[in-house]
Amino acid sequence: MKKVSVISGDHFTDARGTVSFVNAFRFPDIKRFYTIHHPDTDIIRAWQGHKIESKYFYVTQGSFLIAYVLIDSWDNPSESLLAQTIVLDAEQPAILCIPPGYANGIKALAANATLLSFSDLDIDAAKTDNWRFDQNLWLDWSKY
Fold first, then answer.
1. Would you list the domain boundaries of the chain?
2. pTM: predicted TM-score of the whole model, two decimal places
3. Which residue from 138, 10, 11, 30 is spatially nearest to 80, judged by alpha carbons?
């Protein structure tokens, strides 16, 4: 099983503005992408799991807490699974790569934060690989 990983990027600023980039990220398997905008820090989107789909996250504005957990049973996951967390910030360009087998959740840490999400499944295939779990499992979101 693949592990969750982070591909670091950077940014360059001159008189013309700032360019943010993650040049090591490759797109050969990406089928679609979408943006998620959280107008405030109260919104929690958790937990979405995928047996076969990989997800990639990149913050374009503000910052997000992203949590992920390796699922032990898709029909009845253990309530004691250990969630991992990472903060992605637009000021420190990076892409979080979550392979199949995990559930993830997100919460904006700044108002009007925006997240790009890339997927290696088209929308029709993704609809059959969409597992939802109660947002209160595995992480106390109120601590963030």
1. 5-11+28-133
2. 0.93
3. 138
What pLDDT, in 10s, does the model give residues 79-123? 999 999 999 999 999 999 999 999 999 999 999 999 999 999 999
| 102 three-class SS | strand
Q: Which residues of 116-139 are buried (b: 16+ CB within 10 A; e: fewer)?
A: ebbbbbeeeebeeeeeebeeebbb
Which residue is associated with the tokens 């106390």? 140
> Which residues, 6+ apart, have CB-to-CB distance to 130 below 8 Å?
48, 49, 50
DSSP β-ladder status, 94-98 and 84-89: unpaired
Task: Please name the fold of domain 5-11+28-133.
Answer: Jelly Rolls (2.60.120)
